Amino acid sequence: MKSESIDRAEVFVVGPDTEKHAWAEGMAGQHMANIVLRLTTHGGLEGIAGAAMITSHGFDLSVGETLRYLLPEIMNQTAAEREGLWHRFRNLGTPQVPQAQSLIDIALWDMTARQAGLPLYQLLGGARHKILSYASTPLLPDNMAYIDYVSERQREGFKAVKFHCWCNPARDLPMCEAAAKHFAGSGMELMLDVEQRYDLEGALKVGKRIGELGFRWFEAPVPDTNFAAYREIKRRSAVPIIAAGNTWVDLQQLAAGIELDCWSALRVDATICGGITPLRKIMGLAEAHGMSVEIQCWGYTLTQAANLHVMLAYQNCTYFEQPVPYPAFEHGALDVIRTDKDGYVHAPSGVGLGIRTDWDAIRSSAILNFEVRPKK
């Protein structure tokens, strides 16, 4: 029906004046652009999505500019054609900025759930309505700052924290030991993410020790492309090993990594792997191998929401990644996702993604804004 076909796409690359954080020694505060896509049908039905692009020194426009050339492909198409559109974009032949395709797919899923009058997680399967959360920290100045920070999160209700730290084994390991000692017996789960910045020797040393300390997992110890190193680290470490999740995002790549026994769990992001359509396939691939998918959620509220809905639709994900401090990640959202006093995040209450957008805030902070309409 013509009323269900897409008649308009609006793109906003938003560069808000929010607090900027770093996640490794020597890293400047990062500029996190929020790329928001709004699709509208001839009949007025909307679908929205948001993805982050994180860069040093300034806000990146590449996702928005890529959308300028992809969006004409979906004009006069419908949300019911998601699978075909995903295959069309996947096989363009030239690599694209991954968030661009992801945004289109997520907006189509949001539109589909709105049309059905359902929250997206229920449309996708509805396995549960809440999931445990971990606080994902910024870089902090010293060991005591991390202990104080985790203590604050624990008082708020968090039962798990993931450290972003200096990414230097000589500094990271003493901090991990101090934190493990301080929170021993408190029920607080600890994870470590070193942003793919260790070499194999450092990763083996730290992996062995934090396994002894009972850490929940060790994330991104070396570059994701180094399958051989991941296999060796996993073989020689007691702690579960997962990748960063931004490099190997295709089914065939992930299947190869599983076959080589590189990881204890998979890690991807709906806004980077191509959207919810491929993420559903990845969830099934992992389940078939008895693995979880520890989905990352780093970004503004719309990014968090897309990933949360998938987590709630399936059983094989253990934690929601809650970026903190909250305000830096909530610009442009009238509904936000926060961890409750018992350590859980809950499904948004509205239909689709369930996030109402502050369009005035989005427009006022946009550094690139354009629309695409069907050719006459």
Query: What fold name goes in the CATH topology slot of the largest domain?
Result: TIM Barrel
Kindly state the number of beta strands: 11
**Quaternary class:** single chain
* CATH hierarchy, class of the largest domain: Alpha Beta
Which stretches are poorly predicted, pLDDT < 50 over at least 5 residues?
A: none
> Tell me, what's the shape?
globular
Please indicate the percent range of residues in DSSP E strands (runs of 2 or more).
15-25%
- What is the H/E order? EEEHHHHEHEHEHEHEHHHEEHE
Please summarize the sheet with the most strands: 7 strands, mixed
| Computed structural class | alpha/beta
End-to-end distance, in Å? 18 Å
CATH architecture of the largest domain: Alpha-Beta Barrel
Mean pLDDT: 96
The radius of gyration is 20 Å
Q: What's the number of helices?
A: 12
CATH superfamily of the largest domain: Enolase-like C-terminal domain
How many distinct folded domains?
Answer: 2
